[in-house]
Predict the 3D structure of the following.
Amino acid sequence: MRRHSVRLIARSFLAALFLGALPAAAATVSVNTLADELNADGDCSLREAVQAANTNAAVDACVAGTPGADTVVLPAGTIPVSVTINITDAVTIRGAGRASTTIQRGATTAFNGTGVVGATLTLEDLAVVGEVNTGGTQDIAITRVDFTGSTGTIVNSLNGAITIADATMTGGVNSLNGTIAISNSTLTGDGVNSSGGALSVTDTTVTGGGVNSNSGTLSLTRVRVLNAPSTGVNTSTSPITLVDSTVAGAGNDGVNSGSGAISITRSTISGNGDDGVGSGTSAVSIVNSTVSGNGGVGIVGNGTITLNAVTVAGNGEGGLTGSGTFSLVNTIVALHAGTEDGDCANPVASAQESLDSDNSCGLNAANNRPGVNPLLGPLANNGGSTLTHMPLAGSPAIDAGSNAACQAVDQRGAARPADGDGDGTATCDIGAVEAAGGVTPPPPPQPPANIPTLSEWGLLVLVLLVVLSAARIVPGTRRR
Ligand SMILES: [Ca+2]
Ligand SMILES: [Ca+2]
Ligand SMILES: [Ca+2]
Ligand SMILES: [Ca+2]
Protein backbone atom coordinates (compact mmCIF):
# COMPACT_ATOMS: atom_id res chain seq x y z
CA MET A 1 0.00 0.00 0.00
CA ARG A 2 2.73 2.41 0.98
CA ARG A 3 4.92 1.28 -1.93
CA HIS A 4 1.95 1.82 -4.25
CA SER A 5 1.50 5.43 -3.03
CA VAL A 6 5.19 6.19 -3.56
CA ARG A 7 4.93 4.88 -7.14
CA LEU A 8 1.86 7.04 -7.78
CA ILE A 9 3.58 10.17 -6.46
CA ALA A 10 6.68 9.43 -8.57
CA ARG A 11 4.53 8.90 -11.69
CA SER A 12 2.59 12.13 -11.08
CA PHE A 13 5.84 14.01 -10.57
CA LEU A 14 7.35 12.65 -13.81
CA ALA A 15 4.14 13.35 -15.73
CA ALA A 16 4.08 16.93 -14.44
CA LEU A 17 7.73 17.35 -15.37
CA PHE A 18 7.08 15.95 -18.86
CA LEU A 19 3.99 18.08 -19.48
CA GLY A 20 5.74 21.16 -18.21
CA ALA A 21 8.47 20.66 -20.79
CA LEU A 22 5.98 20.52 -23.67
CA PRO A 23 4.90 23.71 -25.41
CA ALA A 24 1.28 24.72 -24.86
CA ALA A 25 -1.01 23.14 -27.44
CA ALA A 26 -1.76 25.36 -30.43
CA ALA A 27 -5.19 26.94 -30.39
CA THR A 28 -7.72 26.65 -33.16
CA VAL A 29 -9.58 29.93 -33.48
CA SER A 30 -12.77 29.51 -35.48
CA VAL A 31 -14.08 32.54 -37.31
CA ASN A 32 -17.90 32.67 -37.36
CA THR A 33 -18.65 35.94 -39.18
CA LEU A 34 -17.60 37.40 -42.54
CA ALA A 35 -17.73 40.90 -41.02
CA ASP A 36 -14.76 43.24 -41.36
CA GLU A 37 -14.49 44.25 -37.72
CA LEU A 38 -12.50 44.38 -34.51
CA ASN A 39 -15.01 44.91 -31.71
CA ALA A 40 -16.88 43.15 -28.90
CA ASP A 41 -20.26 42.33 -30.39
CA GLY A 42 -20.23 38.65 -29.50
CA ASP A 43 -18.76 36.95 -32.58
CA CYS A 44 -15.33 36.08 -34.00
CA SER A 45 -14.16 37.84 -37.18
CA LEU A 46 -10.91 37.31 -39.13
CA ARG A 47 -9.34 40.43 -37.65
CA GLU A 48 -10.45 39.44 -34.13
CA ALA A 49 -9.13 35.90 -34.62
CA VAL A 50 -5.70 37.07 -35.77
CA GLN A 51 -5.56 39.44 -32.81
CA ALA A 52 -6.39 36.51 -30.51
CA ALA A 53 -3.59 34.47 -32.14
CA ASN A 54 -1.15 37.40 -31.95
CA THR A 55 -1.85 38.36 -28.33
CA ASN A 56 -2.67 34.89 -27.03
CA ALA A 57 -5.74 36.32 -25.34
CA ALA A 58 -9.46 36.01 -26.08
CA VAL A 59 -10.77 38.71 -28.41
CA ASP A 60 -14.55 39.19 -28.67
CA ALA A 61 -15.86 35.61 -29.02
CA CYS A 62 -12.55 34.28 -30.40
CA VAL A 63 -10.75 31.88 -28.07
CA ALA A 64 -7.32 32.87 -26.83
CA GLY A 65 -4.32 31.91 -28.91
CA THR A 66 -1.27 30.29 -27.39
CA PRO A 67 2.37 31.33 -27.46
CA GLY A 68 3.59 30.07 -30.83
CA ALA A 69 1.62 28.68 -33.73
CA ASP A 70 -2.17 28.93 -33.77
CA THR A 71 -4.66 28.13 -36.51
CA VAL A 72 -7.39 30.51 -37.62
CA VAL A 73 -10.12 28.62 -39.46
CA LEU A 74 -12.28 30.62 -41.87
CA PRO A 75 -15.80 29.78 -43.05
CA ALA A 76 -16.84 29.80 -46.71
CA GLY A 77 -17.68 33.21 -48.10
CA THR A 78 -16.02 36.51 -48.93
CA ILE A 79 -14.37 38.39 -46.08
CA PRO A 80 -13.79 42.07 -46.87
CA VAL A 81 -10.73 43.53 -45.15
CA SER A 82 -10.40 47.32 -44.94
CA VAL A 83 -7.10 47.45 -43.06
CA THR A 84 -3.83 45.57 -43.33
CA ILE A 85 -3.73 42.70 -40.84
CA ASN A 86 -0.46 42.52 -38.90
CA ILE A 87 1.08 39.18 -37.98
CA THR A 88 3.25 39.13 -34.85
CA ASP A 89 3.06 35.45 -33.82
CA ALA A 90 3.12 32.27 -35.91
CA VAL A 91 -0.28 31.62 -37.39
CA THR A 92 -1.94 29.45 -40.01
CA ILE A 93 -4.95 31.01 -41.71
CA ARG A 94 -6.98 28.26 -43.34
CA GLY A 95 -10.02 28.71 -45.57
CA ALA A 96 -12.72 26.26 -46.57
CA GLY A 97 -11.07 25.86 -50.00
CA ARG A 98 -9.73 28.21 -52.65
CA ALA A 99 -13.10 28.26 -54.43
CA SER A 100 -15.03 28.84 -51.20
CA THR A 101 -13.25 31.36 -49.00
CA THR A 102 -12.01 34.73 -50.30
CA ILE A 103 -10.19 37.41 -48.35
CA GLN A 104 -10.93 40.66 -50.19
CA ARG A 105 -8.39 43.41 -49.55
CA GLY A 106 -7.78 44.84 -53.05
CA ALA A 107 -4.48 45.68 -54.74
CA THR A 108 -2.64 46.35 -51.51
CA THR A 109 -1.22 44.52 -48.48
CA ALA A 110 -3.68 42.14 -46.86
CA PHE A 111 -1.20 40.62 -44.39
CA ASN A 112 1.87 42.32 -43.05
CA GLY A 113 4.54 40.69 -40.93
CA THR A 114 6.45 43.04 -38.68
CA GLY A 115 9.59 40.95 -38.70
CA VAL A 116 9.14 38.97 -35.48
CA VAL A 117 11.47 35.97 -35.81
CA GLY A 118 9.52 32.72 -35.84
CA ALA A 119 6.20 34.44 -36.56
CA THR A 120 5.65 32.42 -39.73
CA LEU A 121 2.55 33.34 -41.70
CA THR A 122 0.93 30.27 -43.27
CA LEU A 123 -2.00 30.61 -45.69
CA GLU A 124 -3.91 27.54 -46.82
CA ASP A 125 -6.95 26.69 -48.94
CA LEU A 126 -8.29 30.10 -49.80
CA ALA A 127 -8.33 32.94 -52.31
CA VAL A 128 -6.73 36.27 -51.50
CA VAL A 129 -7.34 39.54 -53.31
CA GLY A 130 -4.35 41.38 -51.97
CA GLU A 131 -0.67 41.05 -51.12
CA VAL A 132 1.45 39.49 -48.38
CA ASN A 133 4.51 41.10 -46.92
CA THR A 134 6.93 40.22 -44.11
CA GLY A 135 10.01 41.86 -42.70
CA GLY A 136 13.11 40.58 -40.90
CA THR A 137 13.54 36.83 -41.05
CA GLN A 138 9.82 36.14 -40.75
CA ASP A 139 8.82 33.25 -43.05
CA ILE A 140 5.85 32.85 -45.37
CA ALA A 141 4.27 29.51 -46.35
CA ILE A 142 1.47 29.33 -48.91
CA THR A 143 -0.39 26.21 -50.00
CA ARG A 144 -3.42 25.92 -52.31
CA VAL A 145 -4.05 29.64 -52.53
CA ASP A 146 -5.20 31.80 -55.48
CA PHE A 147 -3.91 35.36 -55.42
CA THR A 148 -5.35 38.19 -57.50
CA GLY A 149 -5.64 41.94 -57.15
CA SER A 150 -2.11 42.87 -58.15
CA THR A 151 0.17 42.35 -61.13
CA GLY A 152 3.30 43.45 -59.28
CA THR A 153 4.88 41.70 -56.32
CA ILE A 154 2.24 39.74 -54.44
CA VAL A 155 4.38 37.89 -51.93
CA ASN A 156 7.32 39.78 -50.54
CA SER A 157 9.85 39.03 -47.81
CA LEU A 158 12.95 40.71 -46.51
CA ASN A 159 15.10 37.82 -45.26
CA GLY A 160 12.52 35.18 -44.45
CA ALA A 161 12.00 31.96 -46.37
CA ILE A 162 9.09 31.92 -48.82
CA THR A 163 7.53 28.55 -49.62
CA ILE A 164 4.72 28.41 -52.18
CA ALA A 165 3.01 25.21 -53.32
CA ASP A 166 0.02 24.80 -55.61
CA ALA A 167 -0.76 28.49 -55.96
CA THR A 168 -1.89 30.80 -58.73
CA MET A 169 -0.79 34.40 -58.67
CA THR A 170 -1.43 37.34 -60.99
CA GLY A 171 1.83 38.88 -59.79
CA GLY A 172 5.23 37.78 -58.60
CA VAL A 173 7.34 36.76 -55.63
CA ASN A 174 10.18 38.77 -54.23
CA SER A 175 12.75 38.45 -51.47
CA LEU A 176 15.83 40.40 -50.54
CA ASN A 177 17.98 37.61 -49.11
CA GLY A 178 15.52 34.90 -48.12
CA THR A 179 15.16 31.63 -49.95
CA ILE A 180 12.21 31.16 -52.31
CA ALA A 181 10.81 27.70 -53.11
CA ILE A 182 7.88 27.49 -55.52
CA SER A 183 6.23 24.31 -56.77
CA ASN A 184 3.16 23.36 -58.82
CA SER A 185 2.17 26.96 -59.34
CA THR A 186 1.29 29.48 -62.04
CA LEU A 187 2.61 33.02 -61.83
CA THR A 188 1.45 35.64 -64.30
CA GLY A 189 2.18 39.35 -64.36
CA ASP A 190 5.53 39.35 -62.63
CA GLY A 191 8.42 37.03 -61.99
CA VAL A 192 10.45 35.58 -59.16
CA ASN A 193 13.17 37.84 -57.86
CA SER A 194 15.78 37.79 -55.14
CA SER A 195 18.93 39.69 -54.48
CA GLY A 196 20.81 37.03 -52.58
CA GLY A 197 18.41 34.24 -51.72
CA ALA A 198 18.49 30.84 -53.38
CA LEU A 199 15.55 30.25 -55.72
CA SER A 200 14.10 26.81 -56.34
CA VAL A 201 11.21 26.52 -58.78
CA THR A 202 9.64 23.22 -59.85
CA ASP A 203 6.60 22.26 -61.97
CA THR A 204 5.65 25.89 -62.41
CA THR A 205 4.84 28.33 -65.21
CA VAL A 206 6.07 31.89 -64.92
CA THR A 207 4.74 34.24 -67.59
CA GLY A 208 5.31 37.94 -67.99
CA GLY A 209 8.28 38.03 -65.63
CA GLY A 210 11.66 36.38 -65.32
CA VAL A 211 13.39 34.35 -62.64
CA ASN A 212 16.21 36.45 -61.31
CA SER A 213 18.74 36.45 -58.52
CA ASN A 214 21.86 38.51 -58.20
CA SER A 215 23.87 36.17 -56.00
CA GLY A 216 21.49 33.35 -55.05
CA THR A 217 21.52 29.93 -56.68
CA LEU A 218 18.78 29.39 -59.29
CA SER A 219 17.39 25.90 -59.68
CA LEU A 220 14.53 25.31 -62.13
CA THR A 221 13.03 21.88 -62.82
CA ARG A 222 10.03 21.38 -65.13
CA VAL A 223 9.50 25.11 -65.31
CA ARG A 224 8.32 27.27 -68.19
CA VAL A 225 9.50 30.87 -68.17
CA LEU A 226 7.54 32.55 -70.95
CA ASN A 227 7.54 36.09 -72.35
CA ALA A 228 9.62 37.75 -69.65
CA PRO A 229 9.97 41.43 -70.57
CA SER A 230 13.73 41.34 -70.01
CA THR A 231 15.95 38.26 -69.45
CA GLY A 232 14.16 34.97 -68.79
CA VAL A 233 16.48 33.41 -66.22
CA ASN A 234 19.18 35.67 -64.94
CA THR A 235 21.93 35.81 -62.34
CA SER A 236 25.08 37.75 -61.85
CA THR A 237 27.40 35.49 -59.86
CA SER A 238 25.50 32.37 -58.83
CA PRO A 239 24.91 29.01 -60.55
CA ILE A 240 21.87 28.35 -62.74
CA THR A 241 20.53 24.80 -63.10
CA LEU A 242 17.77 24.21 -65.63
CA VAL A 243 16.22 20.74 -66.07
CA ASP A 244 13.28 19.73 -68.30
CA SER A 245 12.40 23.40 -68.69
CA THR A 246 11.52 25.99 -71.33
CA VAL A 247 12.64 29.60 -71.53
CA ALA A 248 10.90 31.29 -74.45
CA GLY A 249 9.77 34.66 -75.68
CA ALA A 250 11.89 36.77 -73.31
CA GLY A 251 12.61 40.32 -74.46
CA ASN A 252 16.32 39.97 -73.84
CA ASP A 253 18.44 36.81 -73.38
CA GLY A 254 16.79 33.52 -72.52
CA VAL A 255 19.34 32.51 -69.88
CA ASN A 256 22.12 34.77 -68.73
CA SER A 257 24.85 34.70 -66.11
CA GLY A 258 27.84 36.91 -65.55
CA SER A 259 30.08 34.45 -63.77
CA GLY A 260 27.83 31.77 -62.27
CA ALA A 261 28.03 28.30 -63.80
CA ILE A 262 25.15 27.41 -66.13
CA SER A 263 23.90 23.82 -66.36
CA ILE A 264 21.05 23.06 -68.79
CA THR A 265 19.59 19.58 -69.23
CA ARG A 266 16.67 18.45 -71.46
CA SER A 267 15.48 22.01 -71.93
CA THR A 268 14.54 24.37 -74.76
CA ILE A 269 15.69 27.99 -75.00
CA SER A 270 13.86 29.49 -77.98
CA GLY A 271 12.34 32.60 -79.44
CA ASN A 272 13.98 34.99 -77.00
CA GLY A 273 14.74 38.53 -78.19
CA ASP A 274 18.51 38.41 -77.83
CA ASP A 275 20.90 35.50 -77.16
CA GLY A 276 19.60 32.08 -76.17
CA VAL A 277 22.29 31.51 -73.55
CA GLY A 278 24.45 34.49 -72.70
CA SER A 279 27.35 34.26 -70.30
CA GLY A 280 30.41 36.15 -69.28
CA THR A 281 33.10 33.98 -67.75
CA SER A 282 30.67 31.27 -66.64
CA ALA A 283 31.30 27.59 -67.17
CA VAL A 284 28.42 26.41 -69.36
CA SER A 285 27.34 22.78 -69.66
CA ILE A 286 24.39 21.92 -71.89
CA VAL A 287 23.12 18.38 -72.44
CA ASN A 288 20.17 17.08 -74.48
CA SER A 289 18.81 20.55 -75.12
CA THR A 290 17.62 22.86 -77.89
CA VAL A 291 18.71 26.46 -78.43
CA SER A 292 16.89 27.78 -81.48
CA GLY A 293 15.13 30.70 -83.06
CA ASN A 294 16.52 33.28 -80.68
CA GLY A 295 17.02 36.81 -82.01
CA GLY A 296 20.70 37.05 -81.11
CA VAL A 297 23.32 34.31 -80.99
CA GLY A 298 22.45 30.81 -79.80
CA ILE A 299 25.18 30.54 -77.17
CA VAL A 300 27.70 33.22 -76.31
CA GLY A 301 30.39 32.88 -73.68
CA ASN A 302 34.00 33.38 -72.71
CA GLY A 303 34.36 30.46 -70.30
CA THR A 304 34.51 26.70 -70.77
CA ILE A 305 31.45 25.67 -72.76
CA THR A 306 30.63 22.00 -73.24
CA LEU A 307 27.74 20.82 -75.38
CA ASN A 308 26.62 17.20 -75.54
CA ALA A 309 23.62 16.19 -77.65
CA VAL A 310 22.55 19.77 -78.22
CA THR A 311 20.72 21.29 -81.20
CA VAL A 312 21.69 24.93 -81.81
CA ALA A 313 19.75 26.08 -84.87
CA GLY A 314 18.30 29.05 -86.69
CA ASN A 315 19.30 31.82 -84.30
CA GLY A 316 19.24 35.36 -85.71
CA GLU A 317 22.87 36.39 -85.31
CA GLY A 318 24.71 33.07 -85.27
CA GLY A 319 25.19 29.80 -83.44
CA LEU A 320 28.21 29.99 -81.15
CA THR A 321 30.30 33.03 -80.39
CA GLY A 322 32.61 34.53 -77.77
CA SER A 323 36.17 33.79 -76.73
CA GLY A 324 35.14 30.71 -74.76
CA THR A 325 36.55 27.21 -75.13
CA PHE A 326 33.77 25.34 -76.93
CA SER A 327 33.73 21.53 -76.84
CA LEU A 328 31.11 19.72 -78.89
CA VAL A 329 29.95 16.11 -78.64
CA ASN A 330 27.03 14.75 -80.72
CA THR A 331 25.96 18.35 -81.30
CA ILE A 332 24.27 20.19 -84.18
CA VAL A 333 25.12 23.85 -84.84
CA ALA A 334 23.28 24.72 -88.02
CA LEU A 335 21.11 26.96 -90.18
CA HIS A 336 22.81 30.25 -89.37
CA ALA A 337 23.92 30.96 -92.95
CA GLY A 338 23.94 34.67 -93.68
CA THR A 339 23.86 35.70 -90.04
CA GLU A 340 26.50 37.88 -88.42
CA ASP A 341 28.50 34.99 -86.96
CA GLY A 342 27.36 32.01 -89.01
CA ASP A 343 27.22 28.69 -87.20
CA CYS A 344 30.45 29.45 -85.34
CA ALA A 345 32.18 32.82 -85.06
CA ASN A 346 35.43 30.92 -84.42
CA PRO A 347 36.44 27.28 -84.87
CA VAL A 348 35.58 25.29 -81.75
CA ALA A 349 38.29 23.88 -79.48
CA SER A 350 37.17 20.29 -79.94
CA ALA A 351 34.37 18.44 -81.68
CA GLN A 352 33.36 14.82 -81.71
CA GLU A 353 30.62 13.44 -83.99
CA SER A 354 29.14 16.90 -84.44
CA LEU A 355 27.56 18.70 -87.37
CA ASP A 356 27.47 22.22 -88.77
CA SER A 357 25.81 23.48 -91.93
CA ASP A 358 28.16 26.25 -93.10
CA ASN A 359 31.52 24.65 -92.35
CA SER A 360 32.48 27.45 -89.95
CA CYS A 361 32.96 25.46 -86.74
CA GLY A 362 36.24 23.80 -87.71
CA LEU A 363 34.85 20.27 -87.54
CA ASN A 364 37.99 18.72 -88.96
CA ALA A 365 38.32 15.61 -86.82
CA ALA A 366 37.08 12.30 -88.17
CA ASN A 367 33.39 11.40 -87.80
CA ASN A 368 32.21 15.02 -87.77
CA ARG A 369 29.76 16.30 -90.40
CA PRO A 370 30.89 19.74 -91.54
CA GLY A 371 28.85 21.76 -94.00
CA VAL A 372 25.71 19.63 -94.24
CA ASN A 373 22.06 20.55 -93.72
CA PRO A 374 20.76 18.52 -90.75
CA LEU A 375 17.21 18.50 -92.25
CA LEU A 376 15.43 19.45 -89.04
CA GLY A 377 11.69 19.66 -88.58
CA PRO A 378 10.17 22.81 -87.09
CA LEU A 379 10.19 23.39 -83.34
CA ALA A 380 7.26 21.23 -82.32
CA ASN A 381 5.77 18.96 -79.73
CA ASN A 382 7.52 15.69 -80.50
CA GLY A 383 6.72 14.24 -77.07
CA GLY A 384 8.28 15.01 -73.72
CA SER A 385 7.69 18.21 -71.80
CA THR A 386 9.56 20.56 -74.15
CA LEU A 387 9.43 21.48 -77.84
CA THR A 388 12.14 20.02 -80.08
CA HIS A 389 13.39 19.83 -83.69
CA MET A 390 12.94 16.26 -84.95
CA PRO A 391 15.50 15.24 -87.61
CA LEU A 392 13.52 14.55 -90.80
CA ALA A 393 13.82 11.32 -92.78
CA GLY A 394 17.23 11.20 -94.45
CA SER A 395 18.77 13.68 -92.01
CA PRO A 396 22.57 13.26 -91.83
CA ALA A 397 22.23 13.59 -88.03
CA ILE A 398 20.45 10.24 -87.78
CA ASP A 399 22.68 7.39 -86.60
CA ALA A 400 25.74 9.60 -87.03
CA GLY A 401 26.63 10.26 -83.40
CA SER A 402 29.03 8.62 -80.99
CA ASN A 403 27.65 5.68 -79.05
CA ALA A 404 30.51 5.96 -76.57
CA ALA A 405 29.34 9.47 -75.65
CA CYS A 406 25.63 8.74 -76.11
CA GLN A 407 23.19 9.90 -73.43
CA ALA A 408 20.80 7.22 -72.09
CA VAL A 409 17.76 9.22 -73.24
CA ASP A 410 17.16 12.17 -75.56
CA GLN A 411 15.69 15.58 -74.65
CA ARG A 412 12.20 14.09 -74.64
CA GLY A 413 13.16 11.19 -72.42
CA ALA A 414 13.12 8.66 -75.27
CA ALA A 415 15.74 5.93 -75.13
CA ARG A 416 19.07 6.30 -76.96
CA PRO A 417 20.55 4.95 -79.12
CA ALA A 418 17.84 3.88 -81.56
CA ASP A 419 18.23 2.47 -85.05
CA GLY A 420 16.98 5.52 -86.95
CA ASP A 421 18.12 4.51 -90.43
CA GLY A 422 16.78 0.96 -90.29
CA ASP A 423 20.08 -0.79 -90.99
CA GLY A 424 19.73 -3.01 -87.93
CA THR A 425 22.31 -1.14 -85.88
CA ALA A 426 21.24 1.29 -83.14
CA THR A 427 23.51 4.30 -83.26
CA CYS A 428 23.19 7.56 -81.37
CA ASP A 429 21.87 10.55 -83.34
CA ILE A 430 23.58 13.95 -83.43
CA GLY A 431 21.54 16.61 -81.65
CA ALA A 432 18.94 16.78 -78.90
CA VAL A 433 16.46 14.32 -80.42
CA GLU A 434 16.87 10.63 -81.21
CA ALA A 435 14.76 9.92 -84.31
CA ALA A 436 12.35 7.00 -83.85
CA GLY A 437 13.94 6.62 -80.44
CA GLY A 438 12.05 4.28 -78.12
CA VAL A 439 8.92 5.21 -76.20
CA THR A 440 7.45 8.63 -76.89
CA PRO A 441 6.61 10.28 -73.56
CA PRO A 442 3.27 12.10 -73.12
CA PRO A 443 2.86 15.61 -74.57
CA PRO A 444 3.32 18.69 -72.39
CA PRO A 445 0.37 19.81 -70.20
CA GLN A 446 -0.24 22.99 -72.23
CA PRO A 447 1.35 24.26 -75.47
CA PRO A 448 3.94 26.91 -74.56
CA ALA A 449 3.02 30.29 -75.98
CA ASN A 450 4.86 32.51 -78.40
CA ILE A 451 7.46 30.06 -79.65
CA PRO A 452 8.49 30.67 -83.24
CA THR A 453 9.59 27.89 -85.54
CA LEU A 454 12.71 27.98 -87.66
CA SER A 455 12.68 31.04 -89.88
CA GLU A 456 13.50 28.87 -92.94
CA TRP A 457 10.38 26.79 -92.41
CA GLY A 458 8.28 29.88 -91.84
CA LEU A 459 9.56 31.34 -95.09
CA LEU A 460 8.87 28.12 -96.97
CA VAL A 461 5.27 28.00 -95.75
CA LEU A 462 4.79 31.68 -96.58
CA VAL A 463 6.15 31.22 -100.11
CA LEU A 464 3.87 28.21 -100.63
CA LEU A 465 0.82 30.19 -99.42
CA VAL A 466 1.63 33.11 -101.74
CA VAL A 467 2.11 30.78 -104.71
CA LEU A 468 -1.14 28.92 -103.94
CA SER A 469 -3.21 32.09 -103.50
CA ALA A 470 -1.73 33.58 -106.67
CA ALA A 471 -2.63 30.40 -108.56
CA ARG A 472 -6.24 30.73 -107.31
CA ILE A 473 -6.73 34.45 -107.75
CA VAL A 474 -5.29 34.90 -111.28
CA PRO A 475 -7.62 32.48 -113.17
CA GLY A 476 -10.61 33.82 -111.14
CA THR A 477 -10.04 37.40 -112.24
CA ARG A 478 -9.56 36.33 -115.87
CA ARG A 479 -12.98 34.63 -115.91
CA ARG A 480 -14.60 37.93 -114.93
CA1 LIG B 1 -16.88 40.97 -33.37
CA1 LIG C 1 -0.24 32.73 -30.84
CA1 LIG D 1 19.86 6.73 -83.92
CA1 LIG E 1 21.21 2.31 -87.71
Summary: The helical segments are 2-21, 46-55, 455-479. The chain has two domains: 20-190, 275-474. Residues 46 and 124 are 14 Å apart (CA to CA).
